[in-house]
Design brief:
Structural class of chain A: mainly alpha
Order of helices and strands of chain B: HHHHHHHHHHH
Strand content of chain A: under 5%
Distance between the termini of chain A: 36 Å
Largest interface: A-B, 41 and 39 residues
Oligomer: heterodimer
Radius of gyration of chain A: 20 Å
Shape of chain B: globular
Number of helices of chain B: 11
Strand content of chain B: under 5%
Number of domains of chain B: 1
Order of helices and strands of chain A: HHHHHHHHHHHHH
Number of strands of chain A: 0
Largest sheet of chain A: none
Number of helices of chain A: 13
Chain lengths: 268, 263
């Protein structure tokens, strides 16, 4: 598997370039932890004042928020460099990836890691554990397996959507505003609160168009034992996350490959 | 006559803004999403009958709509990008030898940038919210007039608080954590997302004295008639004065120990 060994070589190089920026790493991780604590603080203020939010109590809201964040940690650490594709295409630097004898997608993903994504895991790992015990959950092996498969589901959906959006740069050049807006549906809505509190139109968008809700809401309802009153659309929708992830990854790869074929260097 | 050269700076940054107005429109749509999020929260609480007699959906939606309208006009992202570029490329040295004061130069750059955001994004956003949501209006005309002054003070307080954060960038030569910390604190203590009315008492005690309050909570409370006009303006004015003095002092101190990257 030369692709994987190429990726690992690139990863090693990436680590070496980042070692020099130790302060950057610490400040970045602290920033991530702080901003998430503040968001959880907002949830705490709301639930202290109003007890529940549409039937969700504080720890359930904490669970949903951090379930998203735990999967997202993989995206934000290992796959985030996809977001730099637009810059490479506009500047013409994407040429460099095409002339090397390594798969350009591997080069794009492997050329930079964002280690302060560790902050995502520290906060979400802690909070998920706390929520698990505060809510007296007791998962059997089936629930545990479902939890474990939900993690790659989450970061693959995020990665696929990121790649689809980034690939639009091959046709449109300037896409950062659009990318940012779509990811607001992710960071801004899906992560913050269970999607059943939003207007129905948003629930449709977050399930069928930008399916970020499979990162936390759909599996989360199952794992929190709320299938009785919090099913959205239909019970089976809550279990198809892995399938959605595979389909979106396939679509993303098709779009990426087409994009490379239409890519014309900006020259200079 | 020196003012003329600073106004030229404003004009140029206004033109720069126009170059990426399509992105700005996307960012504004993102803010619209945040407003819709808060409206969904308020409406969920309203539906479950949790709001009580003092709060109601109309009051809370007015609060959020006004907050996010101001947020669109107050954005400091452009100045953040401009500063980090200067530092990353080491161009800061060039800026410092120019015959205009760097601090004023930056402020006027920010004015130019804000013209488009306030006139073409924030104002239409606010009007649209009023038409769609049917929001509260100020209790009387003097309050409405004082509100305009309060916005101006809030705008400046926001700028100087951010400028002080940005100065930390000069000390640490790092900028990834700065904006995140600034945004986090803004999220909570400016009252942009949650009004202080629903804070627990101890937290409200802290929030009431910090300068962040002057950015969103104070002007919105003034607009809604829940804070006396004099108290609101005095709070904002006092903090603005303190922040300007603090910025100038820190800036002078900083210039003595500046490290310029690259070459």
């Amino acid at each position: 598997m030369s692709t994987i060994s190429n990726y690992l070589d690139l990863a090693r190089l990436s680590v070496k370039t980042r070692v020099g920026y130790r302060f950057d790493f610490i400040a970045g991780s602290v920033g991530i932890i702080l901003s998430n604590l503040i968001n959880l603080g907002l949830i705490l203020i709301l639930t202290l004042q109003f007890k529940t939010l549409l039937g969700w109590n504080f720890w359930e809201l904490v669970f949903m928020y951090n379930f998203w964040l735990f999967g997202h940690g993989f995206y934000s650490t290992f796959f985030r460099n996809i977001e730099n594709l637009q810059t490479l295409v506009v500047s013409g630097d994407f040429d460099k990836l095409l002339v090397k004898p390594v798969n350009p997608l591997v080069q794009l993903i492997g050329s930079q890691f964002y280690f302060y994504g560790a902050g995502d895991w520290i906060i979400s790992g802690t909070m998920l554990t706390l929520a698990y015990f505060q809510l007296n959950l007791s998962w059997g092996p089936v629930e545990l397996a479902f939890f474990l498969i939900s993690i790659p589901t989450a970061f693959l959906i995020e990665t696929a959507l990121s790649l689809i959006l980034a690939s639009l740069a091959f046709w449109l050049n300037k896409t950062e505003g659009l990318n940012w807006l779509v990811f607001q549906f992710n960071y801004g809505l899906t992560q913050k609160y269970p999607i059943d509190i939003y207007f129905p139109g948003f629930q449709v968008i977050l399930t069928f168009i930008f399916p970020f809700a499979f990162m936390n809401y759909f599996p989360g309802v199952v794992l929190l034992g709320r299938m009785g009153d919090k099913v959205l659309f239909a019970p089976w929708v809550h279990f198809i996350g892995p399938l959605v992830a595979v389909v979106f990854c396939a679509v993303a790869l098709i779009i990426w490959n087409r994009g490379i074929r239409v890519y014309k260097s900006s020259g200079s | 006559m020196r003012l003329k050269s600073y106004l030229a700076v404003s004009r140029i940054s206004f033109k720069n803004t126009l170059a990426y107005r399509s992105n700005l429109i996307f960012y504004t749509l993102g803010t619209l999403l945040q407003l819709l999020l808060m409206l969904a929260v308020w409406s969920a609480l309203d539906k479950q009958g949790a709001l009580g007699p003092d709060l109601n959906f109309k009051k809370l939606s007015t609060y959020s709509a006004l907050g996010f309208s101001l947020n669109i006009g107050f954005s400091v992202f452009y100045i953040y990008g401009y500063l980090t570029e200067l530092i990353r490329k080491g161009d800061l040295a060039m800026e410092l030898v120019r015959p205009v004061e760097f601090m004023k130069n930056l402020l006027f750059r920010y004015f130019g940038f804000s013209v488009f955001r306030i006139g073409f994004l924030a104002l239409p956003f606010w009007l649209l919210c009023n038409v769609v949501l049917g929001l509260q209006v100020p209790p009387d005309v003097p309050t409405a007039l004082a509100f305009v002054l309060s916005i101006a003070l809030a705008y400046l307080v926001n700028y100087f608080v951010f400028f002080l954060f940005a100065l930390l960038t000069f000390i640490s030569l790092d900028n990834s954590g700065i904006m995140m910390t600034f945004m986090s604190i803004s999220t909570l203590f400016t009252g942009l997302y949650l009004p202080f009315w629903i804070f627990p008492d101890w937290l409200r005690g802290v929030a009431e004295i910090l300068p962040f309050k002057a950015i969103y909570f104070t002007p919105i409370s003034l607009y809604m008639g829940t804070m006396p006009v004099g108290e609101a303006l005095a709070f904002q004015g006092a903090w603005l004065l303190a922040l300007v003095l603090l910025s100038q002092g820190l800036w002078k101190l900083m210039m003595r120990r500046i490290v310029v990257q690259g070459g």
